[in-house]
Design brief:
Layout (H helix, E strand, L loop, with lengths): L4 H14 L5 E4 L2 H8 L7 E5 L6 E4 L4 H7 L4 E4 L4 H12 L4 E4 L5 H11 L4 E4 L3 H5 L4 H24 L6 H14 L4 E2 L4 E4 L20 E6 L1 E3 L2 E2 L2 E6 L5 H20 L6 H14 L11 E3 L6 E5 L12 E4 L2 E4 L3 E4 L2 E6 L2 E4 L13
Parallel strand pairs: 1-5, 3-4, 5-6
Antiparallel strand pairs: 1-2, 2-3, 7-10, 8-9, 9-12, 10-11, 13-14, 15-18, 16-17, 18-19
Helix pairs in contact: 4-5, 7-8, 9-10
Protein backbone atom coordinates (compact mmCIF):
# COMPACT_ATOMS: atom_id res chain seq x y z
CA UNK A 1 0.00 0.00 0.00
CA UNK A 2 1.39 3.46 -0.86
CA UNK A 3 2.30 5.89 1.89
CA UNK A 4 -0.35 8.53 2.73
CA UNK A 5 0.44 11.93 1.22
CA UNK A 6 1.31 13.64 4.54
CA UNK A 7 3.74 10.81 5.36
CA UNK A 8 5.26 11.01 1.87
CA UNK A 9 6.00 14.72 2.32
CA UNK A 10 7.49 14.27 5.79
CA UNK A 11 9.73 11.39 4.74
CA UNK A 12 10.80 13.21 1.57
CA UNK A 13 11.83 16.23 3.63
CA UNK A 14 13.80 14.02 6.02
CA UNK A 15 15.54 12.26 3.14
CA UNK A 16 16.53 15.53 1.48
CA UNK A 17 18.06 16.75 4.73
CA UNK A 18 19.93 13.59 5.75
CA UNK A 19 20.53 11.65 2.54
CA UNK A 20 24.14 12.75 2.17
CA UNK A 21 24.99 11.76 5.75
CA UNK A 22 23.97 8.11 5.66
CA UNK A 23 21.89 5.32 4.18
CA UNK A 24 19.19 5.07 6.85
CA UNK A 25 17.90 6.68 10.04
CA UNK A 26 17.00 4.61 13.08
CA UNK A 27 14.08 6.36 14.82
CA UNK A 28 13.70 5.45 18.50
CA UNK A 29 11.54 8.32 19.75
CA UNK A 30 7.88 7.26 19.85
CA UNK A 31 6.51 10.65 18.74
CA UNK A 32 8.88 10.78 15.78
CA UNK A 33 7.86 7.24 14.80
CA UNK A 34 4.23 8.35 14.86
CA UNK A 35 5.05 11.47 12.83
CA UNK A 36 6.91 9.51 10.15
CA UNK A 37 4.76 6.36 9.98
CA UNK A 38 1.36 6.95 11.60
CA UNK A 39 2.01 4.25 14.22
CA UNK A 40 2.41 4.90 17.93
CA UNK A 41 3.48 2.21 20.36
CA UNK A 42 5.98 1.40 23.06
CA UNK A 43 9.15 -0.67 22.68
CA UNK A 44 9.26 -0.10 18.93
CA UNK A 45 11.69 1.37 16.42
CA UNK A 46 11.36 2.61 12.87
CA UNK A 47 14.06 2.40 10.22
CA UNK A 48 13.84 4.94 7.40
CA UNK A 49 15.98 4.19 4.30
CA UNK A 50 17.28 7.55 3.13
CA UNK A 51 17.54 6.73 -0.58
CA UNK A 52 14.08 5.35 -1.25
CA UNK A 53 12.13 2.24 -0.38
CA UNK A 54 9.49 1.42 2.23
CA UNK A 55 9.61 2.36 5.88
CA UNK A 56 10.37 -0.43 8.36
CA UNK A 57 8.77 -0.79 11.80
CA UNK A 58 10.31 -3.11 14.38
CA UNK A 59 7.93 -4.05 17.18
CA UNK A 60 6.47 -7.05 18.98
CA UNK A 61 3.30 -9.10 18.72
CA UNK A 62 1.30 -6.73 20.95
CA UNK A 63 1.32 -4.15 18.17
CA UNK A 64 1.15 -6.28 15.02
CA UNK A 65 -2.51 -5.62 14.30
CA UNK A 66 -2.23 -1.96 15.28
CA UNK A 67 0.66 -1.41 12.86
CA UNK A 68 -1.30 -3.03 10.06
CA UNK A 69 -4.16 -0.67 10.82
CA UNK A 70 -2.21 2.56 11.34
CA UNK A 71 0.79 2.07 9.03
CA UNK A 72 -0.19 -0.49 6.34
CA UNK A 73 2.38 1.06 4.01
CA UNK A 74 5.28 -0.01 6.26
CA UNK A 75 7.28 -3.23 6.27
CA UNK A 76 6.70 -4.87 9.67
CA UNK A 77 9.30 -6.84 11.62
CA UNK A 78 7.88 -8.63 14.65
CA UNK A 79 10.70 -9.44 17.01
CA UNK A 80 11.04 -12.30 19.45
CA UNK A 81 14.23 -10.94 20.97
CA UNK A 82 16.00 -7.61 21.38
CA UNK A 83 15.27 -4.66 19.13
CA UNK A 84 18.93 -4.50 18.10
CA UNK A 85 18.88 -8.15 16.99
CA UNK A 86 15.82 -7.55 14.81
CA UNK A 87 17.38 -4.41 13.35
CA UNK A 88 20.40 -6.50 12.35
CA UNK A 89 18.02 -8.67 10.29
CA UNK A 90 16.67 -5.55 8.57
CA UNK A 91 20.15 -4.30 7.74
CA UNK A 92 21.26 -7.67 6.40
CA UNK A 93 18.52 -7.31 3.83
CA UNK A 94 19.07 -3.62 3.03
CA UNK A 95 22.88 -3.56 3.41
CA UNK A 96 23.32 0.07 4.57
CA UNK A 97 26.89 1.25 4.95
CA UNK A 98 26.12 4.01 7.45
CA UNK A 99 23.21 4.07 9.88
CA UNK A 100 22.26 7.35 11.52
CA UNK A 101 21.01 7.36 15.11
CA UNK A 102 18.86 9.91 16.93
CA UNK A 103 21.46 11.47 19.17
CA UNK A 104 19.03 12.64 21.85
CA UNK A 105 17.06 9.40 22.19
CA UNK A 106 19.43 6.43 21.90
CA UNK A 107 20.54 5.33 25.35
CA UNK A 108 24.06 4.22 26.17
CA UNK A 109 22.93 0.60 26.55
CA UNK A 110 21.08 0.72 23.22
CA UNK A 111 24.17 2.14 21.52
CA UNK A 112 26.30 -0.67 22.94
CA UNK A 113 23.80 -3.28 21.75
CA UNK A 114 23.66 -1.73 18.28
CA UNK A 115 27.45 -1.59 18.04
CA UNK A 116 27.62 -5.26 18.98
CA UNK A 117 25.09 -6.27 16.33
CA UNK A 118 26.02 -3.87 13.53
CA UNK A 119 29.56 -2.72 14.21
CA UNK A 120 30.35 0.66 15.72
CA UNK A 121 31.89 2.02 12.49
CA UNK A 122 28.52 1.84 10.74
CA UNK A 123 26.82 3.98 13.38
CA UNK A 124 26.70 7.76 13.57
CA UNK A 125 24.70 9.71 16.15
CA UNK A 126 23.31 12.97 14.75
CA UNK A 127 20.81 15.72 15.31
CA UNK A 128 18.21 14.61 12.76
CA UNK A 129 16.39 17.96 12.66
CA UNK A 130 13.00 16.38 13.32
CA UNK A 131 12.21 18.77 16.19
CA UNK A 132 12.54 21.70 13.78
CA UNK A 133 10.69 19.86 11.02
CA UNK A 134 7.82 18.93 13.33
CA UNK A 135 7.47 22.55 14.46
CA UNK A 136 5.99 23.46 11.06
CA UNK A 137 2.60 21.80 10.81
CA UNK A 138 1.11 20.44 7.60
CA UNK A 139 -2.60 20.63 6.79
CA UNK A 140 -3.29 17.20 8.28
CA UNK A 141 -1.67 18.17 11.58
CA UNK A 142 -3.48 21.50 11.69
CA UNK A 143 -6.80 19.74 11.26
CA UNK A 144 -6.06 17.54 14.27
CA UNK A 145 -4.82 20.43 16.41
CA UNK A 146 -7.94 22.45 15.59
CA UNK A 147 -10.06 19.49 16.64
CA UNK A 148 -8.10 19.11 19.90
CA UNK A 149 -8.70 22.81 20.63
CA UNK A 150 -12.40 22.53 19.76
CA UNK A 151 -12.81 19.61 22.17
CA UNK A 152 -10.90 21.53 24.85
CA UNK A 153 -13.23 24.47 24.50
CA UNK A 154 -16.41 22.39 24.52
CA UNK A 155 -15.24 20.61 27.68
CA UNK A 156 -14.56 23.95 29.37
CA UNK A 157 -18.06 25.18 28.56
CA UNK A 158 -19.42 22.03 30.20
CA UNK A 159 -17.21 22.70 33.21
CA UNK A 160 -18.55 26.24 33.59
CA UNK A 161 -22.04 24.81 34.00
CA UNK A 162 -20.82 22.18 36.48
CA UNK A 163 -18.40 23.97 38.83
CA UNK A 164 -19.74 25.64 41.95
CA UNK A 165 -18.58 26.69 45.42
CA UNK A 166 -17.85 23.80 47.76
CA UNK A 167 -16.30 21.55 45.09
CA UNK A 168 -12.65 20.63 45.43
CA UNK A 169 -10.02 21.41 42.84
CA UNK A 170 -9.69 17.67 42.27
CA UNK A 171 -13.41 17.27 41.58
CA UNK A 172 -13.36 20.12 39.06
CA UNK A 173 -10.27 18.73 37.32
CA UNK A 174 -11.68 15.21 37.18
CA UNK A 175 -14.91 16.47 35.62
CA UNK A 176 -12.99 18.42 32.98
CA UNK A 177 -10.89 15.36 32.09
CA UNK A 178 -14.08 13.27 31.90
CA UNK A 179 -15.66 15.74 29.50
CA UNK A 180 -12.56 15.70 27.27
CA UNK A 181 -12.93 11.95 26.81
CA UNK A 182 -16.70 12.12 26.36
CA UNK A 183 -16.16 14.59 23.53
CA UNK A 184 -13.72 12.35 21.66
CA UNK A 185 -10.28 13.08 23.08
CA UNK A 186 -7.84 10.34 24.04
CA UNK A 187 -7.47 12.26 27.28
CA UNK A 188 -5.85 15.41 28.62
CA UNK A 189 -2.65 16.55 26.90
CA UNK A 190 -1.04 17.13 30.32
CA UNK A 191 -2.14 17.01 33.95
CA UNK A 192 -5.05 19.42 34.17
CA UNK A 193 -4.39 22.37 36.48
CA UNK A 194 -7.19 23.61 38.73
CA UNK A 195 -5.91 26.09 41.32
CA UNK A 196 -8.22 28.12 43.56
CA UNK A 197 -7.43 31.34 45.40
CA UNK A 198 -3.82 31.47 46.68
CA UNK A 199 -3.02 28.17 44.92
CA UNK A 200 -3.37 30.00 41.59
CA UNK A 201 -0.06 31.71 42.38
CA UNK A 202 1.58 28.34 41.65
CA UNK A 203 2.01 28.19 37.84
CA UNK A 204 1.95 24.37 37.81
CA UNK A 205 -0.32 23.72 40.76
CA UNK A 206 -1.65 20.16 41.19
CA UNK A 207 -5.40 19.92 41.93
CA UNK A 208 -6.02 18.91 45.53
CA UNK A 209 -8.55 19.08 48.37
CA UNK A 210 -8.82 22.89 48.34
CA UNK A 211 -12.49 23.84 47.97
CA UNK A 212 -13.83 26.63 45.84
CA UNK A 213 -15.26 29.42 47.96
CA UNK A 214 -18.03 31.91 47.26
CA UNK A 215 -15.55 34.54 46.02
CA UNK A 216 -12.85 32.35 44.49
CA UNK A 217 -10.75 33.06 41.43
CA UNK A 218 -9.67 29.74 39.93
CA UNK A 219 -6.95 29.02 37.38
CA UNK A 220 -7.88 26.34 34.83
CA UNK A 221 -5.08 25.15 32.52
CA UNK A 222 -6.05 22.20 30.34
CA UNK A 223 -6.04 20.68 26.87
CA UNK A 224 -7.23 17.69 24.88
CA UNK A 225 -5.20 15.16 22.95
CA UNK A 226 -6.85 14.17 19.68
CA UNK A 227 -5.23 11.53 17.46
CA UNK A 228 -1.97 12.35 19.22
CA UNK A 229 -2.13 16.13 18.79
CA UNK A 230 -2.45 18.58 21.68
CA UNK A 231 -4.46 21.61 22.60
CA UNK A 232 -3.38 23.88 25.46
CA UNK A 233 -5.53 26.65 26.97
CA UNK A 234 -5.78 28.64 30.19
CA UNK A 235 -8.74 30.55 31.55
CA UNK A 236 -9.86 31.83 34.94
CA UNK A 237 -13.26 31.21 36.50
CA UNK A 238 -14.69 33.14 39.44
CA UNK A 239 -17.47 32.15 41.80
CA UNK A 240 -18.19 35.68 43.00
CA UNK A 241 -16.70 39.18 43.27
CA UNK A 242 -12.91 39.08 43.52
CA UNK A 243 -10.48 41.47 45.19
CA UNK A 244 -9.32 44.75 43.67
CA UNK A 245 -5.75 43.40 43.43
CA UNK A 246 -6.82 40.33 41.44
CA UNK A 247 -8.97 42.49 39.15
CA UNK A 248 -5.93 44.70 38.58
CA UNK A 249 -3.57 41.89 37.61
CA UNK A 250 -6.24 40.25 35.45
CA UNK A 251 -6.49 43.41 33.35
CA UNK A 252 -2.70 43.64 33.04
CA UNK A 253 -2.32 40.02 31.95
CA UNK A 254 -5.08 40.38 29.36
CA UNK A 255 -3.45 43.53 27.98
CA UNK A 256 -0.05 41.80 27.88
CA UNK A 257 -1.45 38.81 26.03
CA UNK A 258 -3.13 40.99 23.42
CA UNK A 259 0.07 43.01 22.94
CA UNK A 260 2.01 39.82 22.21
CA UNK A 261 -0.66 38.36 19.91
CA UNK A 262 -0.60 41.51 17.80
CA UNK A 263 3.11 41.18 16.98
CA UNK A 264 3.10 37.48 16.06
CA UNK A 265 4.06 37.28 12.39
CA UNK A 266 6.45 35.33 10.16
CA UNK A 267 10.00 36.58 10.54
CA UNK A 268 9.34 38.15 13.93
CA UNK A 269 11.71 36.93 16.63
CA UNK A 270 10.12 34.91 19.41
CA UNK A 271 12.25 36.94 21.82
CA UNK A 272 10.55 40.08 20.49
CA UNK A 273 7.11 38.49 20.91
CA UNK A 274 7.97 37.62 24.51
CA UNK A 275 9.21 41.16 25.04
CA UNK A 276 5.91 42.66 23.86
CA UNK A 277 4.04 40.97 26.71
CA UNK A 278 6.80 41.40 29.26
CA UNK A 279 7.00 45.17 28.64
CA UNK A 280 3.34 45.57 29.62
CA UNK A 281 3.77 43.57 32.82
CA UNK A 282 7.04 45.26 33.77
CA UNK A 283 5.59 48.73 33.14
CA UNK A 284 2.77 47.85 35.55
CA UNK A 285 5.35 46.93 38.20
CA UNK A 286 4.94 43.14 38.15
CA UNK A 287 7.96 42.04 36.12
CA UNK A 288 9.33 39.92 38.97
CA UNK A 289 6.00 38.12 39.22
CA UNK A 290 6.15 36.86 35.60
CA UNK A 291 8.94 34.32 35.78
CA UNK A 292 8.25 31.91 32.93
CA UNK A 293 8.49 32.21 29.17
CA UNK A 294 5.55 33.55 27.20
CA UNK A 295 4.73 30.27 25.46
CA UNK A 296 5.80 27.26 23.46
CA UNK A 297 5.02 25.21 20.42
CA UNK A 298 2.39 22.47 20.53
CA UNK A 299 1.84 19.43 18.35
CA UNK A 300 2.48 15.78 19.10
CA UNK A 301 4.05 16.98 22.33
CA UNK A 302 2.56 19.55 24.67
CA UNK A 303 5.89 21.42 24.81
CA UNK A 304 7.90 21.44 21.61
CA UNK A 305 9.65 23.90 19.32
CA UNK A 306 9.49 26.81 18.95
CA UNK A 307 10.06 28.34 22.39
CA UNK A 308 8.37 31.71 22.93
CA UNK A 309 10.93 33.19 25.26
CA UNK A 310 13.45 35.99 25.58
CA UNK A 311 16.16 33.34 25.28
CA UNK A 312 14.94 32.12 21.87
CA UNK A 313 15.59 34.68 19.16
CA UNK A 314 14.74 32.54 16.13
CA UNK A 315 12.07 33.92 13.79
CA UNK A 316 8.49 32.70 13.59
CA UNK A 317 7.77 30.54 10.53
CA UNK A 318 4.48 30.03 8.71
CA UNK A 319 2.83 26.83 9.95
CA UNK A 320 4.09 26.95 13.52
CA UNK A 321 1.48 26.69 16.30
CA UNK A 322 2.36 28.36 19.58
CA UNK A 323 0.79 29.27 22.89
CA UNK A 324 0.73 32.84 24.20
CA UNK A 325 0.30 32.66 27.98
CA UNK A 326 1.51 35.56 30.13
CA UNK A 327 0.90 35.43 33.85
CA UNK A 328 1.30 37.30 37.12
CA UNK A 329 1.64 35.32 40.35
CA UNK A 330 1.38 36.85 43.83
CA UNK A 331 2.31 34.39 46.61
CA UNK A 332 -0.38 34.13 49.26
CA UNK A 333 -2.81 36.13 47.12
CA UNK A 334 -3.33 34.36 43.81
CA UNK A 335 -2.34 34.47 40.18
CA UNK A 336 -3.71 34.97 36.70
CA UNK A 337 -2.67 33.31 33.45
CA UNK A 338 -4.53 33.60 30.15
CA UNK A 339 -3.54 31.32 27.28
CA UNK A 340 -4.53 30.87 23.65
CA UNK A 341 -3.16 28.83 20.74
CA UNK A 342 -2.01 30.68 17.61
CA UNK A 343 -1.07 29.64 14.08
CA UNK A 344 1.60 31.68 12.30
CA UNK A 345 0.16 32.58 8.87
CA UNK A 346 1.64 34.33 5.81
CA UNK A 347 -0.09 37.58 6.85
CA UNK A 348 0.53 37.34 10.57
CA UNK A 349 -1.34 35.04 12.87
CA UNK A 350 -4.65 33.31 13.45
CA UNK A 351 -5.91 32.70 16.98
CA UNK A 352 -7.23 29.13 16.95
CA UNK A 353 -9.05 29.38 20.28
CA UNK A 354 -11.96 31.73 20.88
CA UNK A 355 -13.23 31.27 24.42
CA UNK A 356 -14.22 34.60 26.01
CA UNK A 357 -11.57 36.07 28.30
CA UNK A 358 -12.92 39.32 29.68
CA UNK A 359 -13.07 39.56 33.43
CA UNK A 360 -16.87 39.47 33.23
CA UNK A 361 -16.73 36.18 31.32
CA UNK A 362 -14.97 34.45 34.23
CA UNK A 363 -18.13 34.49 36.36
CA UNK A 364 -19.88 31.12 36.67
Amino acid sequence: MPMPKPIVKRVRQLRRRLGEQGDGLLVCHALDIHYLTGFYGRDSWAYVPLHGGPLHIISDSRYQEQIQRDAPHAKVWIRDGALSVELAKVTRKLKPRRILLQRDYVTLNQHKALAKQLGSRRLRAIDDGLLEQRSIKDDDELRLIRKAIAISQQAFEQLRRFARPGMTESQVGAYLDYQLKCLGAEGPSFQTIVAADANSALPHAVPGPKRLGKRSLVQIDWGATYHGYCGDLSRMISTGPISKKLREIYAIVLEAQQAAIEVVAPGRSFADIDRAARDVIEKAGYGQQFGHGLGHGIGLNIHELPVVSGRYDKPAVVGQVVTIEPGIYLPGVGGVRIEDDLLVTPRGRRVLSDLPKTLESTMI
